[in-house]
Amino acid sequence: MKATRSVVIGLVSVAAALAAGHLVAGLISPLASPFLAVGNTAIDLTPHPVKDFAIRTFGENDKLVLLGGMAVVLAGLGVVAGLLSRRSPWPGTVLAGALGLLGVAAVLARPTSTTWAVVAPLASLVAGVLAFRWLWSREKPAEEPGRRRFLASTAAIAAGAGVAALGGQWLAGRVDVEASRRAITLRPRVKAPEIPFDADFVREGTPPFMTPLDKFYRVDTALSIPRLRAEDWRLRVHGMVDNEMVLTYDDLLRRPLEEKTITLVCVSNEVGGPYISTANFIGVSLPDLLRDAGVRPGADQLATRSVDGWTCGTPVESIMAPGSNAMLAIGMNGEPLPLERGFPVRMVVPGLYGYVSATKWLVDMELTTFDAFDPYWVQRTWAKKAPVKTMSRIDRPKSFERVPAGKFVAAGIAWAQHTGIDRVEVRVDGGPWQETTLSTEVNVDTWRMWRIELDLKEGNHTVECRATDRKGYTQTDQRAAPIPDGATGWHSMVFTSVAGS
To answer: How far, CA to CA in Å, does 99 sit from each of 66, 74, 96?
Structure first.
């Protein structure tokens, strides 16, 4: 058999296997797709230094890079299967079967898998093996009719794979979540105060105080955004409580809705990183809900679960503390949560990094203890408790930017949730610290902007910043990586001042 035709057989068989699994998963559950299951398992098993590198390098495109890399690897394996089977179909058959079994194992390993979920990877296994064997049997290069038969068979399977893949995608999206979302009207009894005009220095380089929804950072483990309608949503509250509850979305709407301006920050944020945003969240009081459930003595952790199986653990004392502003959020910036931000319901607990406080697509809350349960990231050696650290960032100048010599305004942001920022200082080229001008504070659970006018000589410069909170703590200059409980260190920028405007 010619090498080219062997490669075609391998590639088309891989496509048939993936498409069959995707089609069946569309009928059962999108999360049963073997391609996505393998991807999610890869995320779970990847060492956190590699995850940090992916987030740092690819940002919010890290999942697309993973899926693209998986596609390349599978295509490569298809090529290998074809080349190994030029004389006999058995090497390719064994490799196709092994890949199918890998998909079965990945689906079974998912925390939300049901008994029926295994049908999707089994369909993938069968389709891949049958396609490979059939195409191999149709390839007879010495006969002109055989060549035509082979081309027709290959085209038919490739076309069938395309139709199956599109069908699976359509079935996965048949639940009209956007219609459910559009039907919701949110009327908070308590609205967030108006943002003062001087809450930011956006004209001088800071971000706008309120982050538009399409610019709000996203860091999570979901390869495929869960699609759950509000009318189908249920939240079970159980564990160490006096009154177990199952809440519907309408139950939340009947509770007093409040709107609060809150800044969220991800623990993956490097010093000076972009994973921090601010929005008006609309929701119900989480402390009030837990009081209704009756938290029993000794319960020190609220274990929460997403519909896709991701788990989170939040200190009960942080939720129940006076002024915690912890909530079950159902809206952002005046509208229901976008799908990628956690629709229908997510958790928001200011003052804690997201991996211990911000479960999206929330469906389960269990009152338990830190000794009894380790959530997703704690199982991977991250800290059990992770309060947000006092930090600051330079937004202007940018790294290696060329700016005019003379008078120049540097600007940035700082945050110290639950405490508030007292001052931000800047120094140039290791000189004396200079106090900046702070924007008007909105509340202690949000970021605060700063600006300072510098007098710069021509040449290369390094500017650094540090923040001090209202408890008197000044952020340390000692650099620490984001894991296990948040980055530390002063942010700095190297830039050049040049003559002229």
So the answer is: 18, 9, 5
